[in-house]
Amino acid sequence: MNILAIESSCDETAAAVVKDGRRILSNVVFSQIDIHKVYGGVVPEIASRCHVDKITALVKKAVADSGLSMSRIDAVAATSAPGLIGALLVGLNFAKGIAYANGLELIPVHHIRAHIAANYLVHPSLEPPFLAMVVSGGHSHIVSVNDYTDYKIVGMTRDDAAGEAFDKGARVLSLPYPGGVEMDRLSAGGDPKAVKFPRVSFKDSPFDFSFSGVKTAIINYVHTAQQRGQIINKADIAASYSDAVTDVLADKFYSAAACLGADRLVVAGGVCANSMLRHKLETRLPSGCRLFMPPLSLCGDNAAMVGAQAYYEYNAGFIADLDQNAAATANIELPLCKPKR
Ligand code: KG4
Ligand code: ZN
Q: Mean pLDDT across the chain, nearest whole number?
């Protein structure tokens, strides 16, 4: 089954064709980073307009690159939640237009489910059940994936997401947007033990995250140094900050795995591109467990991951009517439409 998939939940316009949920036939992404850079972050209204500008050409290219004609496309999928609402509506409505014009079925896809599904594209043996950690700009979740469309949240952030923590920390260090990747680069040359930043945990829910404390700590550290006229070592601060954030992510994920007896462990989302996190996940992996991560090219937002998840949503009957709406927030445990079969 060939699915044409669209992703437009934030600042990447993306289209892909994916075969049977596992094979990428084409995958094109337009990043709006240069457009938002001057504002120091994503401007939702500008993101929506930029999706409108780019989406037609990207979808045409995805179909052309797949080597298939439109008549060989079997269904169309789009991220319909969660994300920036105006941005989501562009991709979803474009998908509806394609579905209507070509008599195809429409598959709405949850963005966080899609991030997890990026792993299906590169790990042929990976099948649920497994334990996943999704770390992106808007979400930090530990989720039991019981089946392709059956999820149970084990822990999540109580405030900021891990990606937000990286982006805010980078801003305090006056690094350019998007901050996560810049923090990663800068950290490589710093001493992770130079500054002691807090690692927060909760007694009552040990697998929940909180990054607002570490964010406040870096703000206070930098401002205090500036007020005292001290020269700060940005690489040391970046490395120490990244050390704190990635310690929390790796340790909570692995203690959740131990507690639940999970031995197949999947990580996904933009922050999964972080080199310190990847290193800790690999070196701290409990014995007897297997770790699955996407390559860097599939950690950030893309439409191939949407096409992968869409295949399993389709198989479970989650096919939408053409009045399907988008939503800025959506619980990963709940389907985005009623099953048709
Ligand atoms: O999954 P994603 O592309 O979009 C969302 O669904 O949010 O994640 C974007 C987030 C941003 O916060 C970005 O700074 C962060 O992932 N990120 C990184 C790295 N690359 C991207 N954070 C830390 N280190 C990186 N190398
Ligand atoms: Zn994402």
A: 97
In the chain, where does the domain assigned CATH 3.30.420.40 lie? 2-118+299-315, 128-293
What is the rounded distance in angstroms from the CA atom of residue 219 to the CA atom of residue 24? 42
- Best residue for ligand 1 mutational test, from 8, 31, 181, 267 (most atoms within 8 Å of Cβ): 181
- Nearest in space to 134 (alpha carbons), one of 188, 212, 82, 71: 82
Residues 6 or more apart whose Cβ sits within 8 Å of residue 95 = 6, 76, 77, 78, 106
Fold of 2-118+299-315: Nucleotidyltransferase; domain 5 (3.30.420)
Record the tokens describing residue 182, joined without a space. 């810049």
Tens of pLDDT along 117-135? Answer: 999 999 999 999 999 999 9
pLDDT digits (tens, 9 = 90+) for 60-116: 999 999 999 999 999 999 999 999 999 999 999 999 999 999 999 999 999 999 999
* Angle between helical axes of 162-172 and 234-260 (0-180°, round to 10): 170
Residue 12 to residue 303: CA distance in whole angstroms: 9
How far apart CA 259 and CA 88 sit, in angstroms, is 36
Q: Is the pTM of this model over 0.85?
A: yes
Residues 6+ apart with CB under 8 A from 69: 63
pLDDT computed for residue 295 by the predictor? 98
Q: 82 CB under 6 A from ligand 1?
A: no
Going by CATH, does the domain composed of 128-293 fall within 3.40.50.2000?
no
Nearest to 108 by CA among 128, 145, 129, 78: 78
- The structure tokens listed for 243 are 């050390």
Any atom of ligand 1 within 6 Å of the Cβ of 179? yes
Quick check: CB of 21 below 6 Å from ligand 1?
no
